[in-house]
Amino acid sequence: MKRAFQVHRSDNVATLLDDAAIEAVQVIRDSETFVIALPAAIQMGHKLAVTSIRAGEPVVKYAVPIGIATRAIAIGEWVHLHNCRSQVDERSSTFDPQTGATTDVAYE
Asked: What residue segments make up the domains of the chain, in order of their start?
């Protein structure tokens, strides 16, 4: 079974330790584990939601808000640029989630 690690009990995301397809993932937290089903593939090193996150709520990792959900995020869903924005960089939610390229500036 593929694995993910939740750094702190108060985090609402975990980081994948393996590439995962549409499958169940074992989340490791402290000395316990639990299983979450992924609705889509997520690459190793990326975040998945371990709780439902409402639009406008903080995305929490390391027990610290690392961003704001720009839309509702379901349990098991990939948490990245397409549904989360930085509180520091207002343009972060306009970046392409695959390449990180800007999508809000037209280059002609």
From this structure: 2-94
Contact 14, 27 (CB under 8 A): yes
Token pair for 82: 């397409």
Q: How far apart are CA 61 and CA 6, in angstroms?
A: 8
pLDDT digits over 26-35, tens only? 999 999 999 9
DSSP states along 44-94: TT-EEESS-B-TTSEEEETTEEEEEESS-B-TT-EESTTTEE-SS-TTGGG
pLDDT tens-digit readout, 53-75: 999 999 999 999 999 999 999 99
User: At the topology level of CATH, where does 2-94 sit?
Assistant: 2.30.130
Give the C-alpha distances (Å, rounded to integers) separating 21 from 11, 26, 38, 100: 23, 13, 7, 22
pTM: 0.82
